[in-house]
C-alpha cells in the first residue's frame, strides 16, 4: 500500500476496492480524523531521515526505466495535488472514460473523480479511433467532473480541456493545440482529449474528460498511429518522466478541473484568447475533412465563442464545428 499523508486531523486513506470489471483499484480520499474509540482507516506515518547513503544510485538502464514506467501508480501522490477529488489507479482496463461513464450515468458524483490506468485495451479518441499505447508508455486517465450551471455544453468544452493540458505542461514542454482536441509537440501529435457528457436519472450532468499523453514511443507503436507522433521523452529525460508520472497526472488533472469549472460558469468566450495563443494552425492554409473526404479549404483565421473554427475560403468565411470534421494543414503548407 502506498504511504498515506496526515496533517491537522486529516489523512489520505487507502482502500482497495473492486472495479466494475473486477480489477483491483486504489481509491484515495481525504477522510476526517476518527478518535481511537471509533473504527478508522489506516494512515501510515511518513518517516523522514536526514541520513545520507554512501551507496551509489542504481544505473538507469533501459530495463530499469521500462520497469519504472510499468510500476503501479501511486494514487496518494495524485490525490495530494488534486485536493478535493477521489483518485483511482488500475494497472489495466478497457477505457477509463467508459469506466466512469457507466457509474456517473447512475448518479452524479459528489465531487470529481480521477481514474488512471497504465494500459487501456479499448482506449479511444474522436470518431471512435483506437488509442495505441504499450503499458506505461503514456499518461492515460479520465476525470468525472460534476457540472452545476444550467448553460448549454457545446463542443468547445474539448478545446477548453485541451488548453488546460497544454498550459499544465508548459513549464516542461512547449505544447500547442490543433483544433479541436489534439496536443502537439513540434507539430506532431503528443496526445489528445476526449470529452463526453453523462446525465443521471435526476437530470444532473457530469463531464467526462479522457486525456492521453505520450511519454515514450517505440517504433512499432509509431507505425500504428498513422500520423506524425511525438512523446515527452523528446524534451524530458525518461528517468525524470518515470519518477514524475503522478505529478504530471495531478497537475494536468487539477488544471482540467479548474478550467472545466470556469467553462461551466462562463462558457468558452473567456478562454478563447488563451486557446488562440496556442493554436498551431492559426493563419495557415488548412483543409477540412469529413469521413476522410476533403470538404473545404482555406486559411484558419479564428475560433469563435462557441469553439467553431473560422476558415476564410474563396466563397467567404465559413464556420465549422468539431463533430465529425477533422483539420489538417494543406499539403503545400504542411
What's the number of domains?
2
How far from one another are the termini? 49 Å
Described by the principal axes of the CA atoms, the overall outline is: globular
Rg to the nearest angstrom?
A: 21 Å
SS field, number of helical segments: 8
Q: Give the helix proportion (percent range).
A: 10-25%
Please indicate the percent range of residues in DSSP E strands (runs of 2 or more). 25-35%
N-to-C series of helices and strands: EEEHHEHEEHEEEEHHHHEEEEE
Query: What is the count of β-strands?
Result: 15
CATH architecture of the largest domain: 2-Layer Sandwich
CATH superfamily of the largest domain: Bira Bifunctional Protein, Domain 2
How much is the average pLDDT?
83
Per CATH, what is the topology of the largest domain? BirA Bifunctional Protein, domain 2
CATH hierarchy, class of the largest domain: Alpha Beta
The major beta sheet can be summarized as: 10 strands, mixed
Low-confidence stretches: 1-53
Instruction: Report the structural category.
Output: alpha+beta
How are strands sequenced across the largest beta sheet? 1-2-3-4-5-6-10-9-8-7
